[in-house]
Design goal:
With 448 residues, the protein is mainly α. It is built from 18 helices and 6 strands. The protein has 4 domains: 248 residues, Lysozyme; 66 residues, no CATH class; 48 residues, LysM domain (Membrane-bound Lytic Murein Transglycosylase D, Chain A, Roll), CATH 3.10.350.10; 51 residues, LysM domain (Membrane-bound Lytic Murein Transglycosylase D, Chain A), CATH 3.10.350.10. The chain has a two-stranded antiparallel ribbon with strand order 1-2. A two-stranded antiparallel sheet has the order 3-4.
Amino acid sequence: MKLGAILTVISFIYLLSGCQSVAPQTETTASAKSVKYSRQTSLLTTTEQPVITTVAPPAIDLWDYIRRDLSWHTIHNAQIGKARDHYLRQRRYLPVVAERASLYLYYIVEEVQKRGMPMEIALLPLVESTLNPFASSSSHAAGLWQIMPATGRHLGLENDWWNDGRRDLRDSTRAALDYLEALHAEFDEDWLLALAAYNSGQGRVARARKSNRKKGLKTDYWSLKLPRETRNYIPKLIALTQIVAYPEAFSVEIPGVANAPAFEIADTGGQLEMTRAADLAGIDLDTLRALNPGQLRWATSPDMPPQLLLPVGTGIHFAAGLAALTPDDRVQWQYYRIERGDNLLGIARKFDTQVALLREVNGIRGSMIRAGNTLMIPQGSAWASSLAMASTNKTPTARGYQVRQGDSLHRIAGKFNVSISDIITWNALQPNKYLQPGQKLTLYVRGS
């Protein structure tokens, strides 16, 4: 081991051992005060501090930029240590989130800094969703920030047949940061209490504080009686900040992420099929969907602002192709009022379309339709590719699975069409240990 690495490990161990003597229940333990940042035009520049005579060079790697502004990693207790060990056992975790971070994290960091929030908040989606905008929990929370449906509505996020704002990078980040700022103001400008309320609800945290106050107990996060998930929630975030702050001390290599924007915003000029948009930008459909996870269907919403996120450098090519489109190349609609005696097959033949497409765009299950209702009839070209998009655009949903006699990772992965490495990451499994009958796993699978 190199001398520098040895000194880093010794310094960090000394730091943690010193912090162990400080009771984690103390309210001043990185909980009450905000970390303030000056607004920057780009993350490629760093803010000069008046007490420093030299300015550090701009960070090329985003992780390096993030770790310069972390401050909570000096907190330590047994809960945080346990959470840190859990992360360190998941050797696939950091490579997976680093790959996703290349698309989303720069934007999140930028938005957090614009508001003068602690840099640790930018790492929260790594805890919430492993930076997966398609993640959906059994309680119906969704997106990078795992926002519940009711919370999303309260925060003004659109959620309809075409679009789910909770999955949209820009909309969900705006909503989550708005919510966290409001909670921070409500709970005495204590970020740990704000995060606890974000996880378990502001009412629950307020009641726990009121109960402690009546008993003459402290009312900081570490002193409250909260659900197990919330008791583990903040230790997970702090543990992650420790690993990001000192990767060498934990023998961890975090794949680099460019400290630069990953996308540009392109106007579509109206509703547009996703397959056609991908072709115009010269990218594959999976990349387009990854940048626009809020788009639930085969075409952009007719009611939302006509914009898509595209990889940096593809916007000019996209705009040129868009200008060459004819009206027939656009998504067009005709509305048809169902008459007595109509059926889907007859309507499809009448409008030269497909029954499957009518079902998809109108949200019809089976073949039953009712006289007097209105159908949307899609018109225009390339509907075959649109239908293919509709059939593949299923977002992953968390589901439990109990291991059976004779099961293996290979067998389970094949059954649910997921990768072995994903199963290991989702469940913090030891790759060299056998599964046990009765063992419970969490899988993120796409609907059929």
